[in-house]
Amino acid sequence: MLQEAAFTEVKAESSPVSGADLLIEALKKENVEVIFGYPGGAVLPIYDSIYDCNILHVLPRHEQGGIHAAEGYARVSGKAGVVIATSGPGATNIVTGLADAMMDSLPLVVFTGQVATGVIGTDAFQEADILGITTPITKYNFQVRRIEDIPKIIKEAFHIATTGRPGPVLIDFPKDIAAAKTARPDEPEISLPGYQPTIEPNYLQIRKLTEAISSSKKPVILAGAGIMHSNAAEELKVFAEQQNLPVVHTLLGLGGFPADHPLFLGMGGMHGCYAANMALYECDLLINIGARFDDRLTGNLKHFAQKAAVAHIDIDPAEIGKNVTTSIPIVGDAKEALKLLVKQGGKPPRHVEWMAKLDSWKLEYPYWHEDVESPIKPQRLMQMLHEKSKGEAIVVTDVGQHQMWAAQHYSMSAPGRWVTSGGLGTMGFGVPASIGAQLAEPDACVIAVVGDAGFQMSAQELSVIAEMNLPIKIAIFNNHSLGMVRQWQEIFYKERYSHSRMPSQPSFIKLAEAYGIKGYEVHSETEAGEVLEDVLNNREPVLLDFRIDASENVYPMIAPGKGLHEMEGVKK
Amino acid sequence: MKRTITLTVLNRPGVLNRITNLFSKRDYNIESISVGHAEQAGVSRITCVVHVENDRVIEQISKQLNKQIDVLKVTDISDQAIVARELALVKVAAQPNNRNEIQSLIEPFRASVIDIGKESMIIQITGETEKVEAFIELVRPYGIKELARTGTTAFPRSSQRPGQTKSCSLV
Ligand SMILES: Cc1ncc(C[n+]2csc(CCOP(=O)(O)OP(=O)(O)O)c2C)c(N)n1
Fold first, then answer.
1. Domains present along chain A, CATH in parentheses
2. The domain containing residue B142 runs over which residues?
3. Which of A145, A194, A317 sits opposite B72 (nearest CB)?
């Protein structure tokens, strides 16, 4: 018996593992379900271990597609998206996705291949200084220098990516280290003495906020994506109802609070609604929960919430006071802070007049559009998508006018159903991100709302959708133009449409068919209704080329440099 | 206004890159930065002197630095009693006939001559930035051939008297 135990121990010690095997084992320990990766010379040893590793591997048709898919997966699942790219061009192809994930606080763990340690720094074939390139656009990055460090580095990478304010972490993996063999290292322990996110908010600050709420006359909550990251949608609702507080969402916050709730005012910011923006402008107490006061939300800071005391709950202390002077700073996790606030249960404000005013704004100045049968009005189309999918779809967008129409007209009633590139505004995000979203929730109805231009930045990923038979509904809002650019040129550049129109386009239907995906060209509202009825309920991918009114603009709008109270196009 | 920040950081590859990157990314105006090993193994101490317009900016800088994974501690020591020193090497044009004259300037500054050539001499001076700059201006008329400065490195003094602001000393 004793002898046997000794024997197996010796055996375990004497069967060495490769760096690549250690990588795969570490991913399994983190319960990784899917890898978005693209092979190449420097990652061949890793791919040899992937060959029979039993983790789903998705091969995008461009590394940028891979990392956007990982972002979509992370946004919907709340887990880290995992990406592998080879050295040099593979690594530089993921730069846009890293910047995007950094801006929108999405947890990613990204592996890049690197040339062998012996030739690093010699401009070897396919060498790129990816640590240097990605330092400003990652939460952290590592380069593996010793094979025995692999389990520890990967454990730390997942920890950093998914805790505190989430973000992308990159691990640069020299080829020789992936290929090398070692005795199995000990179970790793995280040692990050400089990284200790504050989770528990300061009780005194919570009390200060409770008192400020009780004595306010015009309070409003501004809720951002921090609600989703901390899984606090339920707590937000309980808190808002307990204190009878109106709620405004940022673009990325949509879904954190139910859109049909009487306390919901709508989205704020450049293309937000009147009631939301005027509430932010007029309020005397602004409670920011997990938003970062982005300039597309605040408009000109000189006019932003000037009459208000500002409270800001954020897990990242550096966000507090960055753009807006804050009198009640609360560093901590949104869920914990909201729980404490509810427990405090202070006296709700006496704000009957304010609530009446907000209600009248909501009633008087909703989003508006014209009713025309053909060409299709994009706002109406968005509403139809909402109706026909019963408001339950996961909506993934690209960037441009269609993105704003989706935000305005697809009312989100639950968290984790809204996937969009907010901070970086990355065209080409939509189609690949929808792949990740569908993989995170295989049974959900996923709609990719994209423009005709952005679609063409990542159309090659149709191949993945077809290959995996993902039932994604791609809705192209086709206006034969770079719509949002065209709109700005119309309004701010005297209709001088410099390179923003695309009169000649391929047949998107034929393109879809080339990949084996069914496509429909849709010209009128009636046709749209019929097609949607048909396709939204089946489990096949489909591409819908909606010919929308090319002259349509997104309103209301706040021109750059203007304040939230200077909205244009509020009414017909 | 000028502020002095000290940081202790884990001595990991890329840490200095992350910090200098942050300064340029956030458009902070940095006057000097000096780095070296601290008392603890694996830890480095960095001293940054920055120019900022107001307190809000310095607060932002501290928070952004603190947010870096490898940064252990950030302290703005500008309002404390501190010991701050930098070292400069100045190569001054010097002919045999004015060497003595230059020597006489050096003494009150407790600078020292560490190399003498046919037409120049190298002077080493340590002290607070103001002192170093005063000395450089004094020898400038003789002709400065080369100049190298380390940037400030600083500590809080052992005893901080309450209400005491910055104490300056010449040496
Ligand atoms: C990668 C990238 N390049 C350029 C832009 C600038 N940009 C923002 S919206 C837009 C037009 C998008 O056109 P389309 O995809 O057709 O969508 P639409 O606005 O027409 O709905 C452009 C060029 C961007 N956001 N991202």
1. 15-182 (3.40.50.970), 203-364 (3.40.50.1220), 378-547 (3.40.50.970)
2. 84-152
3. A194
